[in-house]
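Run folding on both entries below.
>entry_1
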Amino acid sequence: MDFAPVWDQLVQSIHALPKSGLLIAAVGAMLLGIVGSLLVRPLPALGKLLRAASTLGLMGVLLLVVLQLSRMDPRFELAVPEIGLPQQVVEGGETRVPLAGDGHFWLRALVNGRPVNFLVDTGATLTAVSAETAAATGLEPRNVALPVRMQTANGSVAAHLTTIEELRFGNVAARGLDAVIAPNLGPTNVLGMNFLSRLASWRVEGNTMILVPHHPQAELAAGS
C-alpha cells in the first residue's frame, strides 16, 4: 500500500493549522472545556467557569464560520470590517470581455495596483489566485478563517481565504472581494461567481461577455 498520498495530505493539514487563528481558537476552546470538566469535582467554581468560557469560545468560532459562509451569497452576506470581513462591492460601468482563441474569457485586471490575468469561470464558486500572484500583489491569508480544501489538477490542496482590497478592469471596480490563495494553481487566476453574482447583470452574446455592474460609488453614496 502506498502511504505517500496520505502522508502528503497530513503534512498539508499540519502546515495549514498555524495559519488559521480560527481553528486554533476552536481547539483551545475545546481543551478549556475538557480541563473544566476535570476540575468540576475538586474545584467546582473554577471548573464551571472554564466550561462556560469554552462554550462561549466555541459559540464565537461558530459565529465566525457562519459569517464566512454567508459571504458566498450576496443575499445573506454579513460584513464585519473590524475582523477583516469588509463589504464586498462591485461597481462601475458596462464592460465587454471578448472570447479568447482558447475558447475562454480572459481579462487583464489590476489587483491592488498590480497587473494580473484572470480566467472568468462561471463554474467557480470563489475567486482564486495563485500563491505567486498573492505574493506579487501583497495578499495575505485571513487569520479568522478556516482553510478551504480545493481540488486542482495536482490533487486536493488547502487554500486560505484572503481579501482583495481592490480589483479593477475595464470600467469595473471591485472592493473587499473574497478570494482564496491556492497553492499549485499554476499561472491561472480565476474570477468566480462571488464576483459575478455581485454585478447588476452579466450575459454572453456571441463571442462577448457583457458585465454590467451597479452604479458608481459616488452615486451609491449619494443615494444611501
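>entry_2
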Amino acid sequence: MTRWLRLLLILVLIAPVAAQLAGCASERTPAPVDGAPPDLNERFLAEDLDVDRYIDIFEAESREIYAQREGIAAALGLEPGMAVADVGAGTGLFMPAFTSRIGAAGTLYAVEIAPRFLDHLRRRARDAGHAQVQVVRATEHSVELPAASIDVAFVCDTYHHFSDPASTLASLRAALRPGASLVIVDFERVPGETPDWVLEHVRAGKDVFIAEIEAAGFELVEELEIDGLEQNYVLRFRRP
C-alpha cells in the first residue's frame, strides 16, 4: 500500500469522527444572538435617572405585573432557605413577595445594571430590614453571580433588554444549581394584536425567545398560567 493510499484511508476513517466532534462543538456553542439595541438601556444607565418616576411607572396598580405580583411570586414555588436571583430587579417591586417566602435563612440577589436602581435597592432592603437581600451589580454580559449559587432565577420584563443574550444566559446557567429553574416573564408580541409600542420596544416574540434560551442549554418545562396576566406570558425553564 502506497503512502498516499494509506493517507486517503486514514482520512476516510476519521472523517465521520471529525464531523461528530464538530456537531458536538456546535451544540455546546450556540450561535450569537442579536440582543437589544444599545439605545434601549441608555436611559437606565444615566446618572440622573429619576427613580421616583420609575417607581410610579413600575409599581402602579394599572401595570398588570405589579397588580399580579403575589400570584406570580406564588407560582415560583419558593420555599424558606432558597436562594433566588431577581435579574433586572429595577425598583425592587418583588422584594417583599420574595423575601417573605424565602425567609431570613434564604438569599435574594437583587441584580441590576442601573446605578441609580442599585442605590435604591440597597436603601429599600436596609429600610425594610431585609438582611437576606444582596444587591449585585451586573454587566451587559453577565449577571455576576457565584457559580451554582441559586435555586431560581427570575427575569421579569427584562429579557428583551438583554443586549448580549448568549453571554448573559451562559452566566445565568452557571449561577443556577443543576435542576434549578429559570422563570421568564415578558410581553406577548404578536403583530396585528399587541400594541405598537410593544412591537417597537420588544425585539422578538415568545417563540424566538424560547429558541434562544433552549440553545443556551435550558429545557422548557411549562408555560405558567397566572390569573390577571394578559399582556405578559410566564415561562419556566430548567437547568439540566
